[in-house]
Amino acid sequence: MESEPVTIDLLSRARAGDDDAFRAMTQPHVRELQVHCYRMLGSFQDAEDAVQDTLLTAWRGLDGFEGRASLRTWLYKIATNQCLNARRTASRRVPKVWDIPGMQPPEPTRLGEVVWLQPFPDALLGDVPLGPEARYEQTESISLAFVTALQVLPPRQLAVLILRDVLGFHAKEVAEMLDTTLESVTSALKRARAGLQRRQASEPAPAADSPAEQAITAKFVSAYESADLDALVALLTDDVFVSMPPMPLEYEGREPAARFCAGILGSGRTFELVPTRANGQPAFGAYVHGPDGVRHGTGLFVLELAGERVCAMTRFESNVLGWFGLPRTLPSR
Any idea where the RNA polymerase sigma-70 region domain is (predicted)? Predict the structure, then answer.
């Protein structure tokens, strides 16, 4: 669980104001801290901000690092508390109103609680060391369904569950990170586990980039780009879930999802999907063909698969495309 100890020389140089020494100490942990902050906040942008605030706080407070815990544990303590502060601000955000041109949304199944959710690029997912008490696999613990479920938990319960069950820190370590008691951590973890309501796929997803996954996504792309509503709906599970943060509209079940897809595919626009990956899942940048042949980015779809079908589809706005190395427009051919 612990990383290699920081050398006394490196720590001394950093405390003396050596930027390079500080970066050498902290850089090995930055990517996993970003993933941690993303789980805590559900927002890629907010996670980036929280990591920068964590590094700044660590730099300013380096004299307070006494070495009783590892540097990694100390950084996680700072990052977790930065995220708890950030969640107070994020909770005041209001949902976004419908703004997709040329389409009126069908009546939703319900309005979602978690609307300021953002995708996380697979290219930035590193291997995060997990402790012996971790209860989740890496892929499951970064999926959109899991991250969404985390956001509904009260902040302290959320922090405890991630530190204990996802990262595998010992209860005593978590108590020290959160400046609380062992009994408090045990109680919060019990409540968090009971309150974590996740959508369960009917069948396991095929392995990433496997022939089975590629076959499903190829059918999805073909149906979407050809506006074949019947073929698209045939790929959906009976309990498929469609959402579109930061708009709160949610559609659950094949018929509501079909009405939503009919509105998009029946708008008269022609789409092109460009593959990428987000949250360990297949994803696609969606581009609409303009009259001049230029294709304009309209959003990003992330798919959750169950067996040979799609059990969830999350549509994000076009401002996330750049995080995946996708341009806002594609030139005419």
Answer: 28-93
The model carries a pTM of 0.93
Topology (CATH level 3) of domain 137-198: Arc Repressor Mutant, subunit A (1.10.10)
Q: Alpha-carbon torsion 141, 144, 146, 152, what sign?
A: positive
- The pLDDT score that the predictor gives to residue 1 is 44
Q: How far apart are CA 311 and CA 200, in angstroms?
A: 9
Q: Judge contact between 236 and 256, C-beta under 8 A.
A: no
According to CATH, the topology of domain 1-90 is: Rna Polymerase Sigma Factor; Chain: A (1.10.1740)
Mean pLDDT by 10 residues, the chain (333 residues): 62 91 94 96 96 97 85 96 89 78 85 90 85 83 94 96 96 96 97 88 89 97 97 97 94 96 88 97 96 93 97 96 96 82
Burial of 34 (0-12, 13-18, 19+ CB in 10 A): buried
Burial class (CB in 10 A: 0-12, 13-18, 19+), 32: buried
Helix (H) / strand (E) element for 212: namely helix 211-225
**CATH topology (fold) of 211-330:** Nuclear Transport Factor 2; Chain: A, (3.10.450)
